[in-house]
Structure formats: C-alpha cells, structure tokens
Write a structure and sequence with these properties.
Layout: E1 4-6, H1 10-20, H2 26-44, E2 50-56, E3 61-67, E4 72-78, H3 82-91, E5 96-104, E6 111-117, E7 126-130, E8 133-134, H4 138-148, E9 154-158, E10 161-162, H5 164-173, E11 179-181, E12 183-184, E13 187-188, E14 194-195, H6 201-206
Parallel strand pairs: 1-11, 4-5, 4-7, 7-9, 8-10, 9-11, 10-12
Antiparallel strand pairs: 2-3, 5-6, 13-14
Helix pairs in contact: 1-2, 2-3
Bound molecules: uracil (URA).
Length: 209
C-alpha cells in the first residue's frame, strides 16, 4: 500500500474551505489555489536531499545547506495542474517543469494523451506530479505510467482533493508513489466528480464555465 500524506495544517484547511464555496470568484479561487500550492510545496519538499556549500557571511566563512532545485521537476497534468504549478514555482524557482496533456474521455472516463514534454536527464531527477483533483485516478495513473518509462529517481503525486475511490485506484497501480493531499472527500459520483468536492477545478481556475 502506498503512503497518503494528509496535509491538515489550519492554513491549508481554511483556504480549501474558501475554495469549495460555489460563490468563490475565479479570481479568488485562483489566488487561493496559488497560496495552497505554496503551502503544499513546503510539505512535499520536506525530505528533499540537501548539500553543504561553503559560504562567507559578513563576519566569517562557514558552511550552509542548500537544495538543488534544478534536480526537481514539477510535472503539471494539463490543464488544471497549471493552477498548482505557479504557486510551487514561487517556492522552488529553480525547479524544472514538465507537461502532460491528458483529457478524460467523457464516455469511458479513461485518460487520452495528447501532449508530453519533459526536461532532459529525467533519470537524475526527482519528480512531483501535480493535479488539483485525484478523482477516478485515470489521468494520474496514466501520467505516472508514462513518467516511469523515463526512470526518474523518485515520483510523488500532489493534489488538492481526492476521494477513497481515487486513492484506491492510484495506490493499486502505483503503490510506490506517495500521495500528498489536503482532503479525502466522501465519494465519486457517476460522472467522475468528487463529492462534496469543489466542482470542475479547470473551469474554476480558468473561468471557462
Ligand atoms: N475533476 C474535477 O475538476 N473535479 C472533480 O470533482 C473531479 C475531477
């Protein structure tokens, strides 16, 4: 069984509740997602490897610790993943970025790939895949399957919200990939939406509905 990291920090939970409200404007939804992504980046990078470097303060020479942001790749599942990407990049500006374009076939709810662009040397990199909603799990499972073909050093998956069905499907396909989320909601409905959820994350980020 893979690991599930529930991010219960009060700031995360508070912002998530504001985002769920149907009357939240596109502007505030996007701003809150951006802030949440920064807080989630803090959690997902908690165990990132560090290295010692020699530096000089105004007073003397010393050694400090730094993370190598260039080894980290944020992979956004288009299009809603983009909403998380900006916040994460403001915390780890040196990270590389990959994109996977997947759409959900409305009839079968399976994931169909239409775009895939990653940085070079993926075998040297730690990957954090981002998508606000882990619902059926189909897109996330397909995205991670494709990424595994490139043999990155590690893969983590970050979402804002998920549900028991999504967690079960993802963990059965990828038990080695930890999930980071702010909430596990009650259930999935017949159309593949999370309940109570927050609606269609892409539409709410981009104001397309
Ligand atoms: N995708 C969304 O945007 N919302 C859901 O509830 C499920 C999948």
């Amino acid at each position: 069984m893979g690991s599930l990291h529930l991010i219960e920090h009060p700031l995360v939970q508070h912002k998530l509740t504001l985002m769920r409200k149907k009357e939240a404007s596109t502007n505030s939804f996007r701003r809150l997602l951006n802030e949440l992504a920064m807080l989630m980046a803090y959690e997902v990078t908690r165990d990132m490897p560090m290295q010692d470097v020699d530096i000089e303060t105004p007073l003397e020479k010393t050694r400090g610790k730094v993370i190598d942001g260039k080894k980290l790749v944020f992979v956004s599942i288009l299009r809603a993943g983009t909403g998380i990407l900006d916040g994460m990049l403001s915390v780890v500006p040196g990270a590389r970025v990959g994109h996977i374009g997947l759409y959900r076939d409305p009839k079968t709810l399976t994931a169909v790939e239409y775009y895939f662009k990653m940085p070079h040397d993926m075998q040297d990199r730690d990957v954090v895949v981002v998508d606000p909603m882990l619902a059926t799990g189909n897109s996330a499972i397909a995205a991670v399957e494709r990424l595994k073909e490139l043999h990155p050093k590690s893969i983590k998956f970050v979402c804002l919200l998920t549900c028991p069905e999504g967690v079960a499907a993802f963990q059965s396909a990828h038990p080695d990939v930890p999930i980071y989320t702010a909430a596990v909601d009650r259930q999935l409905n017949d159309h593949g939406y999370i309940l109570p959820g927050l609606g269609d994350a892409g539409d709410r980020i981009f104001g397309t509905k």
